[in-house]
Amino acid sequence: MNNKILNVKLGLNVKSFIGLIVAVAIWMIGSLGFVMLLNMIFPATREGYASLIVAYLSFVFLPLGIYIALKFVLKTSIKEFLLNGNKVSLKMLIIYFVSTITIFVIFMLIDFFINRDSYSVTINIISIIKNDLLFPLILLAAVSEELLFRGYLYSMFIKLKRGPLWAIIIPSILFSLIHGLNAEMSANLILMPLYYFLCGVLFSLARYFTDGLGASTMIHSAINAGMFMILSYSDSTMEAYQIHSIFYRNSMNIEYVLPVLVGITVVYYFYQQHKKRRKDDLNKSYDKGMIV
């Protein structure tokens, strides 16, 4: 974690706000127009599984909007924005994705064995294949959201006094408002935005400690994939899209999920702090060894 902040043009300035407005406008207008056009040409895309595919495809307008904002409003380097001067480690991306899926499954199975009556298990090959085919679109959605929340917005706030705090908290609040105010609110009320806020904090911490978007995108993608392919529950917005996963729960059990998510976030934070201290100590030892 060095957080070099190479992108000097992104910050709390007029150009950055104009770029944000341009990016969000292209996303909203493009997505709405795309969905309406396909619904008009292909009526079958108005509901069910087909409507979910169309909804996820519409996410392509978000990275397009951010690209246009960076290229033509801020006139800054796309590569610099994405990588911040770092190299992408495919190994680390895989580790983050697999670790997140593993943790997801472990805690789901703990809940499954404790609350067995709340679950039903169905092995339907057709449903599994349909859900697996959605993975590229799930990845597209996660990448798009990370570009906005942990990319553009994070970069706007990171340079402030106590920048890391603002860069973690503010995008997480906005992330929770966009995701938490949905049909699931009727079942979980304020706990649902809190759940998404904590997810946003976890993603933002991954962004901060790894100094790039890869880790947060992999964690985000893995959680989304788990909620599609492994576990679904009643009151979920996914029910309207006819998504049937292997495990089905009669409710989300938000009272269990929130403490688990808090615990994982806290453990991740202190683990990364420990890694940073060890790295700093090694660097100091190396520097002392070089003194003649």
- Dominant shape: globular
Give the terminus-to-terminus CA distance.
Answer: 29 Å
Number of strands: 3
Q: Provide a count of the helices.
A: 12
Radius of gyration: 20 Å
Following the backbone from N to C, one meets helices and strands in this order, namely: HHHHHEHHHHHHEEH
Structural class by SSE content? mainly alpha
- Compute the average pLDDT: 87
Summary?
With 292 residues, this protein is mainly alpha-helical. The protein contains twelve helices and three strands, in the order H-H-H-H-H-E-H-H-H-H-H-H-E-E-H. Helix 7 packs across helix 8 and helix 8 packs antiparallel against helix 10.
Plain-language structure description:
This protein has 292 residues and is mainly alpha-helical. The protein has a domain at 88-290. 72% of the residues lie in helices and 3% in strands. It is built from twelve helices and three strands; from the N terminus they run H-H-H-H-H-E-H-H-H-H-H-H-E-E-H. The protein has a three-stranded mixed β-sheet. It is globular. The two termini are 29 Å apart. The mean pLDDT is 87. The chain crosses the membrane at residues 20-42, 48-73, 93-114, 165-181, 187-206, 213-234, 254-271. Pfam families: Rce1-like (PF02517). This is CPBP family intramembrane metalloprotease.
List the SSEs and their pairings:
Blueprint: H1 14-41, H2 48-57, H3 61-73, H4 78-83, H5 90-114, E1 119-121, H6 125-133, H7 135-157, H8 163-180, H9 185-188, H10 191-210, H11 214-230, E2 231-233, E3 247-249, H12 254-290
Keywords: Hydrolase, Membrane, Metalloprotease, Protease, Transmembrane, Transmembrane helix
Protein name: CPBP family intramembrane metalloprotease
InterPro entries: CAAX_protease (IPR052710), Rce1/LyrA-like_dom (IPR003675)
